[in-house]
Structure formats: C-alpha cells, structure tokens
What does this fold into?
Amino acid sequence: MTESILHAELAAQLAQLTADGLKRRRRTLDAPCGPLARVDGRDLISFCSNDYLGLANEPALIVAACAAARTWGVGSGASHLVSGHQTAHEALEQKLAAFSGFPRALMFSTGYMANLGIVPALVGRGDAIFADKLNHASLIDAVQLARADSQRYAHGDLAALERLLAASPARRKLILTDAVFSMDGDLAPLPGLYQLAERFDAWLVVDDAHGFGVLGAQGRGSLVHFGIPAAQRIIYMGTLGKAAGGSGAFVAAHEAVIEWLLQRARTYIFTTGSSPIMACALAASLELIENGDARRTHLWQLAAQLRDGLAGTRWRLLPSPTAIQPVIIGDNHEALRVANALFERGLWVPAIRPPTVPRGTARLRVSLTAAHSAEQVAQLIDALRDLA
Ligand SMILES: *Cc1c(COP(=O)(O)O)cnc(C)c1O
It folds into this structure.
C-alpha cells in the first residue's frame, strides 16, 4: 500500500531527527504565561517566553479583554475588507500609528503573516531584495514568496550590503532586516542601513518583533532607540505577541504604503480579522508600554545581573543589549543535556538548535522579563555556575 510506504518514510525521518538531537517536543503548561510555569504537575521558573514586560497575564489587560467580550463578542466574522474591521480594530491601528510615529498603521493577525504580506506586495520580478543572513524564518519565507532577485549579506555587514546595492541594476530595491535578532539578541546596524537605503533609494523593512515595547523611549522600539526618523522609505513591523503580551502584529509606514498593503497584501486580505477582544486588550497594553519605564528598568537590571553572574564561567554569553540572553553551547546533544539538567532543578530554559540557528551554535536562549524577580535570576545563575 502506498500509504504505508509514505508513513514508513516519515517514521525514518523522525527517527533521524532523534538521532541528530533535533527532535522537538512540546510541553503542556498548566498555567498562564509568566515566570512561574506548571508542567506535568511540577513548578518551574520559566525563562522561555517573549513576554518581556510581563503583560501577557496583566490584570489591566484581562479587565479590558472581559469588557471587550461583553461589548463586541468573540469573533470578527470576516476578513477586514469584507466586514471584519470593527471600531476596536480601527482604534488600535490609530493608536499604533501615533505610538510608532508613522502616518498610518495596519494590523495583521501575526508577525509571520505580516512579513509574508509585506514583501511580496512591495517587490516582485525584476526587483531586488537584500537580506541579513540571520533574519527570522518569516522574513526568509517572505523572500521566497516575492519572486524578486534576492541576496543575503553577512550578518550586520554594511560594507557587503553596500557592494550588493551598488552592483544591483534593479529598479526597486528593498532591504530586509530584523531589528533585534531573535536568537542572538543583538541589534542590526539600523543607522547604517538607513543611510544605505537613502543613498541607493531603497526601501528599508525593519522587523522589530523583539524591540517594540522594550527598546527606545517609552518602548517605542528600535528606530527610536537609534534616533532614526519615521521616514518615508522605512516600513516598520512590530509584533504584538511578545512585549505587548497579546497576539498579532502591525505595519506602520507612509500612507501610500499602508494603502497599498491594504489593497495587495494577501495575508491581510485573505484571512479573518483578529478578535476584537484582542484589539481592545492590545489598546490597554499600549498604554502600559508607554508608561512602562519601571518595567523596562527592572528588565535591564536583571540582564545586568545575569551577565555579571556568569562572567568568568565557561558559559559564553553573546554580547546582547536586549532581553534575549543566549548562552552558546555548540553541540546539539550538549545543549539538550544542559537544558535538561536545568529542568531537573526547576529551571526551564529552551535549547535552541538548527535549523533555528546555524549548525554548531546550539544554545540556551535565556529570555528575561520584567515579571522575573532578582531571586529567580539568582537561582538560574547558581544552577549554571554549578553545572559549569
Ligand atoms: C516572533 C517573530 C516573528 C513572528 O511574529 P509572530 O507574531 O509570532 O508570528 C517575526 N519576526 C521575528 C524577528 C520574530 O522574532
């Protein structure tokens, strides 16, 4: 039977993943997102989530969500262009535009969908895309969908990018980068990228999934962090499932760009509008982000504590100025072994392996949030020092 052969093949491929230390498994949490997780009846301190400001389970957001459910019900019922765009969504888009400093913003259901929508809507055959080698998977997939010529430059290498731009005959050019690299925690050289975009008349798409809410004055993101203006050639993408504590994403840009995305971005057009409950919760979240300096200060104190605490040990921390603090291990099996040893001690830190990161750079991705306490970070430091 053909079917059993197909399944046997999959079974062999799955066995290979296990042999390579690449088999992934989900753990089911019996608790809301937060620094304390409950898994299989065990209490753990979690350093896994991207809930950098601790807003995912914030009482003010829960109140807003409950009130929204009573006013708006649960579902939007259709795509935004048909009948799924409600006052709650419209109000959030206007708040996001004002907050990010761009003329207009457009919501997407997820950051992954935003990226898949933006890139093919803006460039196609005969155009050129220039992408950082360590960009997030969603940007890599977006490039594939776009059918433009694409070239990848070495991570953060402005000189390499300059050479590629200078050599490109393309009519329309688009530079594509994470602002904060999701598995390394480092920042893209945004001022240099912006200068090159200006010089070569290119668009600059900035994916600020890990900077929005965290970096810059009032958490306004990586552009503000670097003092880069909300210029016409910049297309800013922020996600709402990380620091904002909900789910979804938005693109903020020039009025014409947003109108074009609304007309042409397929992942905007051909999907049901996100829940109005989420739109209302996110509006509440934006206020907390804007007034969240105390949370951000605490977060930076925890990052400094972790870095100081591991200095001089065998654990190599990447030079990250963000909430993502990766400990490079190298070998897949070794990364898993250390992660499991931490888990046994009640500390949950994800082991990140290829293909999420390049081969030979398996790592523990420690992610800190404003909801962690100094004592919890101290426990992680003690355990890691012990395991070293
Ligand atoms: C998480 C992430 C995304 C995807 O956002 P979702 O809202 O989770 O789909 C896109 N880009 C980067 C850099 C990310 O880290």
Notes: The two ends are 52 Å apart (CA to CA). The chain has two domains: 26-53+293-387, 59-290. The chain has a mean pLDDT of 96. The first helix runs from residue 2 to 19.
